[in-house]
Amino acid sequence: MITPLIGLDWGSTRLRAYRFDEAGGVAQTRALPWGSRHLPEGGFAEAFAQAVEGWPCAPVLACGMVGSRGGWREAPYLDTPCRLDALAGALTSLANPGGRTVHIVPGLRDPAGPDVMRGEETQVAGLLAQAPALAEDARLLMPGTHSKWVRVRDGAVAGFTTVMTGELFAVLRAHSILGAGVAEGLADDEAFARGVATARDAGAAGGLSRLFSARALMLEGALAPAAVADFLSGLLIGDELRMALAADWASPDAPVHLVGEDALCARYRQAAEAFGLSFLATPGAIGAQGLWYVAAAAGLLEGLSHA
Amino acid sequence: MITPLIGLDWGSTRLRAYRFDEAGGVAQTRALPWGSRHLPEGGFAEAFAQAVEGWPCAPVLACGMVGSRGGWREAPYLDTPCRLDALAGALTSLANPGGRTVHIVPGLRDPAGPDVMRGEETQVAGLLAQAPALAEDARLLMPGTHSKWVRVRDGAVAGFTTVMTGELFAVLRAHSILGAGVAEGLADDEAFARGVATARDAGAAGGLSRLFSARALMLEGALAPAAVADFLSGLLIGDELRMALAADWASPDAPVHLVGEDALCARYRQAAEAFGLSFLATPGAIGAQGLWYVAAAAGLLEGLSHA
Q1: Closest residue of A to B248, CA-based?
Q2: Hey, which of A212, B27, B89, B132 has its CA 20 to 30 A from B231?
Q3: Within its chain, how far is the Cα of B191 from the centroid?
Q4: ipTM above 0.85, yes or no
Q5: Could you give all domains of chain B from N- to C-terminal order, each with its CATH number?
Q6: Distance CA A91, CA A62 (A)
Q7: Cβ of B221 under 8 Å from any chain A Cβ?
Q8: B42 to chain A nearest CA, in Å?
Q9: How far is CA A8 from its chain centroid?
Q10: Which of A171, A217, A228, A243 to mutate to test the interface with B (most CBs of B within 10 A)?
Q11: Closest to A243 (Cβ–Cβ): which among B115, B209, B215?
Q12: Contact yes or no for A220 and B109 at CB 8 A
């Protein structure tokens, strides 16, 4: 088997390594628990050695927090608007143990926020490589700990914003009064929908103005302790949609293309309906596809025919 | 010295005991670290015994979380709109060790939220007893861990809402990425003002949509690590003002009367200027005055002339 490229999707809490085949498909994937904030003894070099052990000496392309200031090697941001083919021209390279060379994809910076991303730019590149029709004008949402709302225009990331919905949910549940006395429960779609509706009906004041109602409703028995977390999740995701509409990241007149993990995307789609928004699913595996696309554009695959 | 009343302001984290003189002044104050969520061995009864030790056997009136479901004795809420003289008619009484009787002021519930308060209703009663001109129509703000925005009309609490600004600040700073790598610093009014302006300039999307900018600004060196906390504080307080304006708790056409600790009130006044709002200081010690007012209205002071 010819291995023209090894790809690394290397975030703050985990590392995924992809061994590509000639056609740009993923022949082998390894998932390691080594993120830029959680490394083995020996640091990045040791984590890298584990990730690629036994794989051929192909070019390596990495994206994500591995390129941050606290990462393996800082890969400076490119400012938006930024054409996606510009990523390939701005790789930071690192000659490295094991005789391999690792190239790191730059992150993006939106000066309007300011706001920054690392890793998601490669996913956007992968999505547009698979669905070129979106390159002209599209709205994307990558929900998660730090949701990214991205506007694509003319083959470029025109701008983006981060909403800290997932992290806000986690810290409020674990460390605030809203988590006190609540119980673990099965996913409660009804409580989630009630949270979304509460955010929507709060109007201009927004869902965060109703945060304390999660507590008051539980105290008076109108919300079961096992339903509080889902209510809170709905309230925060609903408020994220309100903010996205207010700042024109989302619009009732255009679909939003969702990129992310299935269960979370399903929640966002449920919330979108309550706001009259249309959310569309996107193909999976775009992270790996993005690495392949950037590697090709950077000429890293040129040796392929000789391998 | 005659002691017509002992007052207890008993919250979730602390207990203040007031020994009143004949004129309704506070002759002696004791501060104890016993809140409803933090009690000595022996629980409420032991904390109470310490608070009143050596004081005459006068009627006791308590307000705050001591009357919550997890408190000493549950004192049911009164729904808004609620006249302040109705508090005195709805005391919950508790015949108690030491031969004393403890009366507990009810909390208030706003069914529109729903929202609840315990303790603040007594402060409102104290404020209106000292400044009767406010009883007809006033807007109040009691900033803190859980800020309370209160609308007074016709001698009643017409409604109120809780904004969790203080708690949100604390959990984000201690447990989120926004607190990572930040340094302790002196109070930085400029960073605070910058956070307030960021919230204000975010328009309808609101300050929470700019939360991640605190991180991005620090990463690019545009916000010193020691200034992040004040920036975040300004952003959250600014967003609280935006919400209050959107939901008509605050208005550019009417002053807001501020009730609270001096340093925090100064911060809110600074933020109010950026939003074109007028915030006025209120007299201190209204908590004790509120207990005196409610006790008088309830007839607890009737034995006074015989003491």
Answers
A1: A205
A2: A212
A3: 26
A4: yes
A5: 6-110+286-306 (3.30.420.300), 163-281 (3.30.420.310)
A6: 10
A7: no
A8: 23
A9: 15
A10: A171
A11: B209
A12: yes
